[in-house]
Amino acid sequence: MTDTTTHFRTCPLCEATCGLEITVRDGAVQRIRGDRADVFSQGFICPKGSTLKQLHEDPDRVRRPLIRRGGELVEATWDEAFAAVADGLAQIWADGDRNAVGLYLGNPSAHTIAGTLYGRPLIQALGTRNLFSASTVDQMPAHVSAGLMFGNPGAIPVPDLDRTDYLLMLGANPFESNGSLCTAPDFPGRMAAIRERGGRIVVVDPRRTKSADAADEHIAIRPGTDALWLAAICTELLGGAVDLGHAAAFVADVDATLATLRTGLAPFTADTVAERTRVPADLTRRIAGELAAAPSATVYGRIGTHTTRFGTIASWLADVATAVSGNLDRPGGSMFAVPASGRPRSERRGGRGFKMGRWTSRVSGMPEVRSEFPTATMADEILTDGPGQVRAMITVGGNPVRSCQDSNRLDEAFAALEFQVSVDIYVNETTRHADVILPSPSSLEKAHYDLAFQGLSIRNTANYSPPVFEAEGPDECDIMAKLALIAQGLGPDADPGIVHQLMLDGATAHAEDPAALQALSAGRPGPERIIDATLRLGPYDLSLEDLEANPHGVDLGALTPALDHVTRTTDAMIDLAPEPFMADLTRLAAELDDTDDDDGLLLVGRRHLRSNNSWMHNLAVLTKGAARCTLQIHPADAALLGVVHEGQATVRSAVGAVVAPVEVTDSIAQGTVSLPHGWGHDVDGVRLGIARRQPNVNSNVLTDASVIDPLSGNGQLNAIPVVVTPA
Ligand SMILES: Nc1nc2c(c(=O)[nH]1)N[C@H]1C(S)=C(S)[C@@H](COP(=O)(O)OP(=O)(O)OC[C@H]3O[C@@H](n4cnc5c(=O)[nH]c(N)nc54)[C@H](O)[C@@H]3O)O[C@H]1N2
Ligand SMILES: Nc1nc2c(c(=O)[nH]1)N[C@H]1C(S)=C(S)[C@@H](COP(=O)(O)OP(=O)(O)OC[C@H]3O[C@@H](n4cnc5c(=O)[nH]c(N)nc54)[C@H](O)[C@@H]3O)O[C@H]1N2
Ligand code: SF4
Ligand SMILES: [Mo]
Fold first, then answer.
1. What pTM did the predictor assign?
2. Is the CB of 410 under 6 A from ligand 3?
3. 224 in ligand 2 pocket by Cβ < 6 Å?
């Protein structure tokens, strides 16, 4: 007798949120394929989606807690592990300095219920200002831009892919990444559909990527100059007739705002930026003309645009270009998702506005943004003695020692910590330094509800996935709740139910009858109850039961104009020309004459479909095939420097050097070289049998923590000046 069951769930690995159909036979996953009935992804899946099986079964995945004993990480019981956490942290806190314990939240925390719901109570209980996350090596510029424009750092406009007539896409490669700050399963298929319906796609990227190949036009911009180019695009658009459309009703004084923009952006024209950006002036003018003339258009920038020294104003200028071409908050333009877990549609307009810089970091004086400090200063806070020094770190679903800047120094910093707790599924470059590792169950052993990316989606949908398998240990939400209780001083034996109830009380506080609302989910696990309450109070009046009854998801329709709903400025208006951004244009203008690195090489990153940041490299199904961790270089540059295809080259930046295998390719612009990030697994203590044997070059040895986007604190991960020599 065999026992076969089928389960439908949302893939938690990237922002595309594809529906998976998982067949389980005799207690093991037999097959994973795309769920053809999923209301959003309709069967689309990438090669990573089916590897939830291999991840679940990976013998290197940590299944029981590990505690450091005699220098070695050895298995322990959960009780022993939580007791060790309580002891270790108590020693650090004995001096009375809460800032001595820091927290780093990594990317998967945005893809789990535990990270998205229980991060906040943990942060509150820790009472530390030393909070860090992958956001400052990623999308923080978009939050700051949205924060100052709309008063709401979460209100990031997304390109309305399914209806647009014109997509101008910069620094993004959805053919490999499947999209970011733009949840759209089968992004490639949606791009094809734009062209099929007569629309046009322009991709701006120093590399001729697969996404560029699938576009109508590719512009090989000079790395790091998107803000300059977008400023010129805006100047061109502002030179013509401007009609903000429906967004005009949200701008206090349209004429004055446009005048401010025109004046501030005046130094940036198609002609003045041509040399620095390497985009001919005629081409820039033509693109601006096309944007203005298209029936609908959207400007979308991502990692290559945001992780530069001008990330925030580049993000803002993309939205300005969209707005002044009349495409903000309208179908086919850039719009706002209204997630099922979001605030009710009926709630009043406006809010408290967005503030940053309310406090600064101890060593470098960097301003907080969204209560975080930049990863750029994490090593400083750990390595610099004095009151307030970070002596212990908690990491949750992150690998900062590979993902953040100047990683040799960060590695040194993590090695120097007095105590480290990591909630993770692997012993990797970061967690190898831990004193206690608390393993999250595998994705298939957890419930899933997307609380982050539904707010960045090109379509409003909702789905809930119950666990496929029962977990061996506590759920990740319980692990987070336990950490919060320990930080609260309630000790390692306190019941996580206390935290669940507190959160439920918080989630239902504004309900007409909180007790009645809570009663509706009685008997369910704590996290589910919070989601249920959130859904019931949300804009679509859904419940967890509704989602359970619809395992392929609930389609809530295409995006609708939502500025009245998403703005949180005090007056419920939007600001197209925030003063800090206008001021930052002075720094941008200095770039026009900066010719320092004109002849040098600039390093950019890249992603591969079969990799996921610094992890998933331990799955043979994904890593087989040609080596991916190569230094891409243009044939002309290679010839000039004497490096050869499949040879080795030394890449040196201001802070470090690596030796990488060379891939000579004309798909990269002259003057640009590229290495992917997240590699470098072959170091002592790492327990990743397969990953260690991959070509291992850690590109973040080269990223310079002293170079940031000052408005957001975001790291510069692209356009890094490097010198390449044969090795
Ligand atoms: N040079 C360069 N550096 C970059 C980038 C770049 O483009 N160039 N990109 C940046 C970006 S966009 C990002 S988001 C960051 C990512 O940076 P991080 O978030 O620091 O790193 P990840 O590689 O995502 O590490 C994920 C960790 O979570 C663990 N994990 C996986 N699933 C789970 C789970 O369910 N629960 C828990 N608790 N742990 C889990 C993995 O084992 C791994 O240790 O990297 C950044 N770094
Ligand atoms: N397979 C896979 N999918 C992923 C991830 C992964 O690691 N692997 N990571 C996930 C995460 S955390 C994120 S944040 C997203 C990121 O998703 P994307 O933003 O699409 O990221 P990339 O694929 O790195 O594409 C960035 C592009 O920017 C280009 N670029 C570099 N510098 C510049 C510049 O100065 N200007 C311009 N215009 N372009 C430049 C690079 O050549 C590259 O093609 O992907 C997510 N999806
Ligand atoms: S595209 Fe992203 S969400 Fe879809 S299957 Fe691949 S990893 Fe999962
Ligand atoms: Mo990211």
1. 0.98
2. no
3. yes
